[in-house]
Specification:
Layout (H helix, E strand, L loop, with lengths): L2 E6 L6 H13 L2 E7 L11 H11 L6 E6 L3 H7 L4 E6 L2 H18 L2 E6 L9 H9 L10 H15 L1
Helix pairs in contact: 2-6
The structure holds 4'-phosphopantetheine (PNS).
4'-phosphopantetheine binds next to strand 1 and helix 4.
Length: 162
Amino acid sequence: MKRAICPGSFDPVTMGHLNIFERAAAQYDEVTVLVTANPNKHTGMFTLDERVQMITEATAHLSNVKVDNWHGLLVDYTTAHSIDAIVKGLRSSLDYEYELPMAQMNNRLSGIDTIFLLTDPRFGYLSSTLWKEVVKYGGDVTGMVPDSVNRMLAKKQAEQAG
Ligand code: PNS
C-alpha cells in the first residue's frame, strides 16, 4: 500500500489543488489531503473545519482520498500514519523557491521525499490568495474553485449580510 499526502492551508481549496489531488489519487493507493495550520499565514477566510468540509465534498468522487487536519509538524503526521511521500503542485520557480527548503527540512527530519507535480497550465495563475482578493472586490471568479467553496462562500456572505 503506497500512501501519499497533500498538505496545505487550502484557504480555500482551488481547482488547481483539486487537479493535484486527482493526479496523486491516480498514482497512489491512498491519498490524505491534510489541512494544516500555517503559522505564517494569519489571514484565514475559512475555519479549519470549513476547509475540511469543502475539500471532503470536492473529493467525494475520489474513493481513495481522505481529508484530515493537523496542528503539529507535518513529519510527525506522516511518520505516525506511515505516509510514503508528500505530493505538491508547482506553478512556477517562485513556488520552487518556497517549497525547496520545506521539502529538504521534511526530508532531514524524517527521510520523507516530496514529489512535485507541475501545475496544469489551466490553473497556473490561480492561488487561494488571489482568489480571495478578487472575491473581496466583487470580481468574477467563475470556475476557479470547486462548487463546495462557492456554496460555503455564499453561506458566509448571507450570514454577514443578515
Ligand atoms: O498551503 P501552504 O500554506 O503553502 O502550506 C504550507 C504547509 C501547511 C504545508 C506548511 O506550512 C506545513 O507543513 N506546516 C506544518 C508545520 C510544519 O511541519 N512546519 C515545518 C515545514 S518544513
